[in-house]
Design brief:
Length: 341
């Protein structure tokens, strides 16, 4: 059956009849957007569970209605999720336990350098694997959405994009600055993702939005970046709105900071924790879903291009709420990227 025949036979108003992401009937070859799940959470420093995010989101996605007012017939473009890498998941489980031992050692001031080296080696291999998976999909002409896992997972994707683009920005939606240098000794810590991203020469700009939990060293990096890092702190955004500035005006200012090509890195804890209560490190404050989506729609309406995105730190709890939010957010993000590419 051709893609057009599948479109004709598919009922976007009915129940999902496929266990593929969002119940869509398309193959990898027929889909414009590919979701790459990375079930990894080796370096999480508070609550675990993000490695289960991709699977939980895939299951919850079968309940997502496919109409999107921002992109007519969005589902027809096709979104396909690769099979989860079980070897990567097993490695994450194995080295998560070793990382926990290292964190315990830190608390007792008895660091095992061999153990730490082993964990860092596994994380290095994860980064390389992600780069390979994303590079392959990009070479096939796909738009790529990486689905974590913890926030360490997209570095390899950023590296793959750096081999294709001479200059791009990262737009980071997050509660945390993630600018720590090898947090807890982990070179590829989830709390170090943007510190590591800034090592990529092609990343000319980092714009952070919603940050509300950060340390003095991270603030120093921001202030000493000579404009390479621009941070919109949650408290400042809210204070300006209390004083009469509209979110529309603020979004215009944020978009103006970005160059033509933008990579979106979306940590779910950038949202109000009522929307992601089981994420690894929830922080009071944050955005409503539509506030962030309005920002992204403003971005693509400006003519700027989203060259890739990740969604990470979704951790399912005892119910489906976090995955429910994550699945609907993933669908909207993929569609916004389709418009803005």
């Amino acid at each position: 059956m051709t893609k057009q025949e599948k479109i004709s036979a598919f009922d976007p108003n009915g129940l999902a009849t496929s266990d593929q992401l969002f119940g869509l009937p398309f193959s990898y070859e027929e889909s414009e957007t590919v979701v790459i799940p990375i079930p990894w959470e080796v370096t999480v420093s508070y609550s675990a569970g993000t490695a289960s995010g991709p699977r939980a989101i895939a299951e919850a996605s079968l309940q997502v209605d496919l109409y999107d007012a921002f992109l007519k017939d969005a589902w027809k473009r096709g979104i396909f999720m690769l099979e989860q890498d079980h070897k990567l998941e097993a490695t994450s489980n194995q080295y998560r336990h070793l990382a926990e031992k290292h964190i315990d050692n830190l608390e007792s001031e008895k660091v095992d350098e061999k153990l730490l080296h082993s964990v860092n080696g596994a994380c290095t291999e994860m980064v390389a694997r992600v780069k390979e998976l994303c590079a392959n999909a990009l070479s096939d002409g796909k738009r790529v959405a990486l689905l974590g896992g913890d926030h360490s997972t997209p570095l390899g994707y950023m590296q793959a994009l750096a081999e294709r683009y001479d200059d791009f920005a990262i737009l980071q939606i997050d509660a945390h600055a993630d600018l720590r240098d090898a947090y807890e000794g982990f070179e590829y810590s989830h709390a170090s993702i943007m510190f590591n991203a800034l090592k990529i020469p092609q990343v000319s700009k980092l714009v952070q939005v919603g940050i509300r939990d950060y340390c003095e060293a991270e603030n120093d990096i921001i202030e000493q970046s000579n404009g390479r890092v621009t941070t919109y702190f949650d408290r400042d955004l809210k204070a300006a709105r209390y004083n009469g500035k509209t979110w529309k005006e603020q979004c215009g200012e944020i978009v103006a900071q970005l160059p033509e090509k933008v990579y979106l890195s979306f940590d779910i804890d950038g949202l109000d924790p009522k929307l992601c209560p089981n994420t690894g490190t929830p922080v009071a404050g944050g955005f409503e879903v539509e506030e962030v989506l309005y920002l992204l729609e403003t971005l693509v309406k400006s003519g700027k291009k989203i060259i890739g995105l990740d969604l990470n730190e979704v951790a399912p709890g005892e119910d489906e709420w976090d995955a429910n939010v994550g699945a609907r957010l993933l669908y909207r993000l993929c569609n916004i990227m389709a418009v803005g590419s």
